[in-house]
Each structure stands twice: as structure tokens, then as C-alpha cells.
Amino acid sequence: MHCPFCRHTDSRVVDSRATDDGASIRRRRQCPDCGRRFTTVETASLSVVKRSGVTEPFSRAKVLSGVRKACQGRPVGEDDLALIAQRVEESVRATGCAEIEAHEVGLAILGPLRELDEVAYLRFASVYQAFESLEDFEAAITLLRAEREPTGVEPAAHDAGGAP
Q: How many CB atoms are located within 10 Å of the residue 123 CB?
């Protein structure tokens, strides 16, 4: 780490603290040459590999933008959108991989978005999964309905008075 004041090539760590719920580390450093102190913030890098093969840094803002478009006109607040973006980033980072496919980021978005708003989920899924026909929408809606209905057989109704 170069000193930002005298450009000396070394520095000593004086204090370290976790920030952003442990997502980054704030370090107080001191230059052994000029004696001045400065702060650095370290984060683990996470890269997204796009379909074209291009790699770019993961961007929570990009996730937020895509989800915001899907939720346009829906009764969804900014706090809900921010929470989804946070959940997506946490889930992607939890894989422990430094690089992740863009497809995996999309999958990480679908689950929380579906819980939040089914219409927004269908909008996002239609773009993400490249729906080409009404049948694609019908299949997705059928799946949503099937998963919404209770599984198994309903218990039979019994008399409260018991058997005669």
C-alpha cells in the first residue's frame, strides 16, 4: 500500500475494523517514512461472467435497476427493492466463488422477487428466460398457481360431537 502523502511503498496497520456487516474491512494505516495516518477499505472482489464471456465487477446497483424495471407500476417500495438487491448480493457471495455466471445472478433474483410480487416476477422471468410466446407465459403462470396451492389432501371434516 503506497502512502497517499509521500508515496512510500510501505505502511503499517494501526487498527482494523469490520464494516458493512462484515462485507469490508476498514484499516487505519501509518506510513513509517512520513508518519502520517490514512484509512483504507478492503472488500472481496466478486466478478460476473456474462454470456459473451466478458467479466465485470458485481454491481448491486445493476441488480436494483433490473428489479426496479420489473416492479415499475407495482405496489413495491424502494426499501423492498433495496432488500432484494442485498439478498441477491448475499446469496451470490455465499457461494464462495470469486467469479459467478450472470445466469446465477438472475436465478438469485427470481426467488426473492417472486416472494415480493408475482407480476414483477413474471415480467423479470419473461426477459431473463427469454419468453417467446404466450405459451411460455401460460406455463410460468401454471407453475406459479400449482406451487401456490396446498400440497396433499385436505383432512376430512369431523363432527365436533364425536361418533354416536
A: 19
Task: For residue 99, give the amino acid letter.
Answer: E
Under DSSP, is residue 15 helix (H, G, I), strand (E, B) or coil?
Answer: strand
Mean pLDDT, residues 53-74 taken together: 92
Taken in order 96, 97, 98, 103, the sign of the CA dihedral is: negative
What confidence category does residue 20 fall into, taking pLDDT thresholds of 50, 70 and 90? Answer: low
Residue 33: strand, helix, or coil: coil
Label each residue of 79-145 as H, E or C.
HHHHHHHHHHHHHHHCCCCCEEEHHHHHHHHHHHHHHHCHHHHHHHHHHHCCCCCHHHHHHHHHHHH
Q: Give the orientation angle of helix 60-70 with respect to helix 102-116, to 10 degrees.
A: 50
Q: How many CA atoms lie within 13 A of 42 on its CB side?
A: 9
Helix or strand (DSSP H, E) at 68: helix 60-70
Cβ–Cβ under 8 Å, residues 81 and 71: yes
What global pTM score does this model have? 0.65
